Amino acid sequence: MSGANLPEGLDVIEPEPVRVPVGDGVVELRPLTVGKLPAFARALRPMAGAFERFDLEALDARGVLDLLVDHGEQILEAVSIATGIARARVDACDHVQLVGLIAGVIKVNADFFGRSLRPLLAQARAVEAGDGRTPSRH
């Protein structure tokens, strides 16, 4: 979808790509496609609790470091999936590039993280705690 062809006010559906320098080139990051969501969700699942500790929109270098200490493998895998960059190339990034990629993935997928992921995680925790609620199916 091109922003020029969309009705006024719908540009939030497809934000401008985020350009991140990686190696000798630049990677354009776009929102996750539906086909990438299952693998991306599997990569993030072990770190679900971390999303409550951090404001992803205000994540700084210290927050990224804390996430990497606790969930480094999952983050690297999720970045690879979300960006389409081969895992070996993600692994070869320096720390500045990695922080840029993580921030870019969060930025272009802000709607997914804010409106979708957090409520789903809250529902999953409620079910695991046995409060009787089950996720609704639409």
Describe what you observe in this structure.
- The protein has 138 residues and is mostly helical.
- It has one domain (33-129).
- Helix content is 54%, strand content 7%.
- The protein has six helices and two strands, in the order ββαααααα.
- Strands 1-2 form a two-stranded antiparallel ribbon.
- Helix 1 (37-44) packs antiparallel against helix 3.
- The model has no long low-confidence stretch (mean pLDDT 78).
Provide keyphrases for this structure.
54% helix; mainly alpha; two-stranded antiparallel ribbon; 138 residues
Low-confidence stretches: none
What is the total tally of β strands?
A: 2
Strand order of the largest sheet: 1-2
- Tell me the helix content: 40-55%
Number of contiguous helices: 6
Cα end-to-end separation: 25 Å
- The averaged pLDDT comes out at 78
Class computed from helices, strands and strand pairing? mainly alpha
Largest sheet: 2 strands, antiparallel
Summarize the entry for a quick read.
It contains six helices and two strands, in the order ββαααααα. It has helices at residues 37-44, 50-53, 61-83, 87-91, 95-108, 110-129; strands at 18-22, 25-29. Strand 1 (18-22) and strand 2 (25-29) form a beta hairpin.
What layout of secondary structure does this protein have?
Blueprint: E1 18-22, E2 25-29, H1 37-44, H2 50-53, H3 61-83, H4 87-91, H5 95-108, H6 110-129
Antiparallel strand pairs: 1-2
